[in-house]
Amino acid sequence: MALYSEKVMDHFRNPRNVGVIEDADGVGEVGNAKCGDIMKMYLKIEDGIVKDVKFETFGCGSAIASSSMATELIKGKPVEEARQLTNQAVAEALDGLPDYKMHCSVLAQEAIEAALKDYESKKEE
Amino acid sequence: MIYADNAATTKMSEAAVNIMSSLIRDTYGNPSSLYSFGQKAKEVLEQAREEIAGLIGAEPREIIFTSGGSEADNQAIISAARLGAKKGKKHIVSSAFEHHAVLHTLNKLSKEGFEITLLDVHENGIIKPEEVASAIREDTCLVTIMYANNEIGTVQDIKSIGEICREKGVLFHTDAVQAVGHLKINVKEQNIDMLSASAHKFHGPKGVGFLYARKGILLTNLIEGGAQEKGRRAGTENVPGIAAMAEALKEAVADIDKNTARLIPVRDRIIAGLNEIPHSALNGDAGSRLPSNINFCFEGIEGESLLLLLDDKGIAASSGSACTSGSLDPSHVLLAIGRVHDVAHGSLRLSIGEDITDEEADYIINSVKEVVEYLRGFSPVWRDLVAGKTQFIL
Ligand SMILES: Cc1ncc(COP(=O)(O)O)c(C=O)c1O
Ligand SMILES: [Zn+2]
User: Quick check: is A1 in a domain?
Assistant: First the structure.
């Protein structure tokens, strides 16, 4: 029995949108090294659309796969839609995660929320 | 596949497989039955007991067959606790990095009013015998210290610890699950009162083990029922498994010198290779460790993703990261030797087998280097470390 679904393994082995956006409009980092998973999301936003998104993750297989899937789900989408992304949507898109790994999908949602919050606060300045 | 997880379990030896399958097929009698077909099984059982006893310097009646290491640990500790309680002695000395079969049993006893002292294992994973001596009190009924640690492979000075316990009149148990069949053991010479072993760690079958208990130590029965094992452990004996265990142990003990001579240079070659990875560190003492054990922490990465990528490269290994244990905390062993959470998550345990080749060792080194570098490449933790935003620990 495999630990993870094929989808999870695919995103873990070939993560999409890995890296950094130097002139990002919003950056969010969540998690901590104490609990074992840290995600950092970089957003490039133009005309209310998520033009580009990149991530860096320190974490387990499902943390890396969740970050990767989350970036795919919001890339090219209106900011409003990105804001609605739930951890369940990330987990479902990965054909499910083991129960004790659901926190990884929560982190992915929170990382995007944090990056969008950063974007909003920068916009206000 | 390169199987480098022999601390988790080992491949059964051919001889053990053969004995087991022939007994399953042909010698299915119940050793408790009177007729000769049952007594044939009884003979196999007692021969195995004699062999195993001889291999660790014990007497046959001092060997009780169990379902494995966990049961042996439970029975040894509970027995000593019951004996102690009768004399009003309810203090136990152990160490912070024991296997959970020991720690959880001690935890249960602490809820029953026992006081537990867990000794420091220091940064090198070695317990100081003099600290055992000073931890022993008037009301101490048991010292239980593992022979060799299952994660970081450090080996304790069991003889000295046993001597201290003997002098002070305190029972001494050792969880020798990782040591039996790999290190030379003589329970009499090493002053061991009780010892736990598990067959699947020395090329025997799973679900079989034994407890050595020096004669005169009254054991508490954990499993009630029939009179098997002189009333100390009920249940029809796993005759094929027990005979296979004896065979596996016979081979393992005969090969200790050969295997040690083979494994130590390979182990040290892998340790030297992995030490070349920047900001990495060996866990546990480099000298006093099992010939098969290599355990590292790599800063800036997490262990489970490392394992999965090594699996893709055909290497089976293990990690003490939280994500591999299903809890939020990394291995209690790594925390016990003072590794902080951030670093403990990025650990790798390789426990190599006797048949490893030099080419395989080099392949392991190169694969680990490659995967660590790859994972660091998109780790925000590593980025902050390199940028000087956070301090390197290793
Ligand atoms: C040190 C130690 N003690 C006890 C055990 C438990 O042995 P078993 O799996 O036979 O119950 C193990 C095996 O994981 C071990 O490594
Ligand atoms: Zn995780």
Answer: no
For the cut 90, the answer to whether the pLDDT of residue B84 exceeds it is yes
- Residue of B198, B210, B289 to mutate, ligand 1, most atoms within 8 A of C-beta: B198
pLDDT at residue number A2: 83
CA–CA separation, B268 and B151 (whole Å)? 17
| Residue from B388, B366, B389, B380 nearest B300 by CA | B380
Nearest CA to ligand 1 atom 4: B69
| Listed residue (B146, B136, B195) closest to B166, CA to CA | B136
Query: How far apart are the two ends of chain A, measured CA to CA in Å?
Result: 52
Alpha carbon distance A39, A64 (integer Å)? 8
Quickly state the pLDDT bin for A125 (edges 50, 70, 90).
confident
User: What integer pLDDT is reported at residue B326 of this predicted model?
Assistant: 61
In a domain, A50, yes or no: yes
Q: In what order do the strands lie in the sheet with B194-198?
A: B63-66, B209-213, B194-198, B171-175, B140-144, B91-95, B115-119
* B6 in Cβ contact with B177 (< 8 Å): no
CB B279 within 8 A of CB B371: no
Across the interface, whether the CB atoms of B380 and A56 are under 8 A apart is answered yes
DSSP-derived secondary structure for A79-97 = HHHHHT--HHHHHHHTT--
Confidence of residue B323 (pLDDT cuts 50, 70, 90): low
> Which of B70, B154, B180, B290 should be mutated for ligand 1, with most atoms under 8 A from CB?
B70
Cβ-based contacts of B386 with chain A (< 8 Å): none
Nearest to A60 by CA among A36, A39, A41: A36
For the beta carbon of residue B368, count every other beta carbon within 10 angstroms: 26
> What is the predicted pLDDT for the residue at B324?
62
B323 is catalytic: yes
Integer-rounded Cα Rg, in Å, for chain A is: 14
Q: Taking CB atoms and an 8 Å cutoff, what residues of chain B touch A101?
A: 323
Domain count, chain A: 1
Q: Is A38 inside a domain boundary?
A: yes
> Is A5's Cβ below 8 Å from some Cβ in B?
no
Nearest ligand (C-alpha, residue B73): 1
Distance B65 CA to ligand 1 centre (A): 15
- CATH number for the domain spanning A113: value is 3.90.1010.10
Host domain of residue A81: 6-124
pLDDT digits (tens, 9 = 90+) for B46-81: 999 999 999 999 999 999 999 999 999 999 999 999
Long-range contacts (CB closer than 8 Å, 24 or more residues apart) made by B100-105: B101/B69, B101/B70, B101/B73, B101/B74, B101/B175, B101/B196, B102/B73, B102/B77, B102/B144, B102/B146, B102/B175, B103/B332, B105/B73, B105/B74, B105/B77, B105/B78
Report the catalytic residues of A: 35, 104
